[in-house]
Amino acid sequence: MPHVVTENCQDCRFTDCVTACPVACFHGDGERLYIDAKACIDCGACIPRCPVRAIKEDFDLSADEEEWAQINALRAPGLPVVRAKEAPLPGAEGRRAALGLN
Ligand code: F3S
Prior knowledge:
Elements: E1 3-5, E2 26-28, E3 33-35, E4 55-57, H1 67-75, H2 92-98
Antiparallel strand pairs: 1-4, 2-3
The structure holds FE3-S4 cluster.
């Protein structure tokens, strides 16, 4: 089952995750990233790289997070692949602190 980028990525976009992905399955817009469910090989390498714990295996999604599986599957194919780390969004560290993940 594929991995999923959930709510916490929004307004953070740290992009540490993409450097761990062996199959370049991350796609992004200006606010966040999404995983292409058809490309993900479920290696799990991205999970510990995310500073805000945004990535989960789809069977680990809570009821509130389940919508993200479909959002990732729908959005990823139409967006550019992100392969290299980029600067986080300006409010990323503040959001990380607000989430209690510093
Ligand atoms: Fe988003 Fe975390 Fe990657 S914030 S861009 S899922 S490292």
